[in-house]
Each structure stands twice: as structure tokens, then as C-alpha cells.
Amino acid sequence: MVLFFTSSATNPPAIIYMGKDKVESEQYSSRSDLTQISPADEELIKYAWPQDVWFHVDKLSSAHVYLRMPESMQWESIPEVLLADCSQLVKANSIEGNKKDNLTIIYTPADNLKKTGDMAVGQVSFHNDKRVKRGSLLTFSLHILDLSQVGHPVHVTKRENPIVNRLNKMKVEKEVNHEQERVDRIKQETAQRRAAAAEKKKADQELARAREAEKVARSYDSLFNAPEDEDSSEPRKTGRELEEDFM
């Protein structure tokens, strides 16, 4: 089962989700670059969409929360209000983290999560540490938030019940067929790419026709505006004069 939350912090709204049957575990193993997750979370990682971003409480057990970004959004510049929603949700779903303040939240694109055959069940690392961000949960105040700033760590001192309650009111529980969802997504993306390619081809053809018509028009203009022969300035002879010339 998957829990879906709709965040109205941005326009258009964003989808946040996490596995219902979560099993909390220490995030990091003896290796600092490894993190422990439940088998259910492994399914979410396996089938995560390209625009999904993964959130976790750093060095504490917590749920694994995913943000499905709108198409126009980049993970490096997620608005702070949306980072706050994700951070508050992952904090609220950490038994230990929910009791603590000044936590650090770690987040990275879901496709940056690395799983190799030599790793134990529920163990992952990162393909690229440079694509991992850590945001300290410090001071956050909704009424002083500068919405023009994006891509910076989210700051909160404690659990913000208004945020958590707002998200929980929008919570929907769904049974997800991950493989079928993946197939449907790929079909939709393929159809969109084909439609875009067809539209571009049509536009290119119309542009080519317009250029050809312009070229033909210019050739006609040059034909009718060509300079006359040097003798064309002389008066035209009458039929009588032409006969006399012939004689």
C-alpha cells in the first residue's frame, strides 16, 4: 500500500508519497555511504519516476518520503514551502525524530539511489554524493518566509502541526501495481514525445512552404522589374514605318 499526500504549498500542487507498510531502521550502516530501508521501500525505489525526489531523516530511523515534482520543477530548486512539507512529513513519521528538534533532512533524486547485488536486502547507497543535499531543521516561520528563495535548506525548529495536519487531511491510501503504472507512464511519455515530434515536423513543413513561397514571389518580382533593353527608350515604330523599312 502507498500513502499519497497532496501539497497545496505550490501551484500546481505537488504529490508526496510513502509506503504505508514502512519498517523503520537506522539510516546508516557501518559504512557511512549506506542507508537501510525496508523491502517495501525497495519497491518504491525500483519504480520511482524520473521526477521523484527521496527524503529521509539523516542518521535516524524514519519513513522514506518521496516528492513527485511537477514537470516544470527542478530538484535543485524545490521551493522552500514544498521542502518544508516534505521535511515535516518525514519528521512526523520518525519515532525518534518526531521527538527531536534541529534535525537534518537528507534528500536526493530517486534515481541517485544505488542498489547493487552485493548489498543486503534493504540496503542502498548513492551514485553521486554531489547530488545529495542535507538541510538542517532550524528556524522556520511561515509569515517571514521569502518565497523568492528556492533551493536552500528548509528551516524549522520543531514539528509544525498545521503543516502535518494539512497534509494528513489530503492523504489517500492506494494499492499500486507498480509494474503496470510504470508501463502506463512509459506509454504516456512515448505518446507525448511522438505528438511533440509530429507537431515539430508539421511546423517545419509549414516553415519550408512559407520560405519556398517567398522565394517564388521574389523571383517573380525580379522578372517583372528587370531593366529594359537599351533601345527600349526609342519610340516604337508604326506598322507603316516597319513596312518602309522592309522596302
UniProtKB/TrEMBL annotation:
Which InterPro entries does the UniProt entry name for this protein? Answer: Jlp2/Ccd25, NFACT_RNA-bd
**Origin species:** Armillaria novae-zelandiae
What Pfam families does the record point to?
A: NFACT-R_1
Q: Which residues form the NFACT RNA-binding domain?
A: 41-128
PANTHER family in the record, alphabetically? COILED-COIL DOMAIN-CONTAINING PROTEIN 25 (PTHR13049:SF2), DUF814-RELATED (PTHR13049)
What protein is this chain from? Cytoplasmic protein
Task: Give me the stretches of Basic and acidic residues compositional bias.
Answer: 194-218
Span list, region Disordered: 194-247
What protein family does this chain belong to? Belongs to the CCDC25 family.
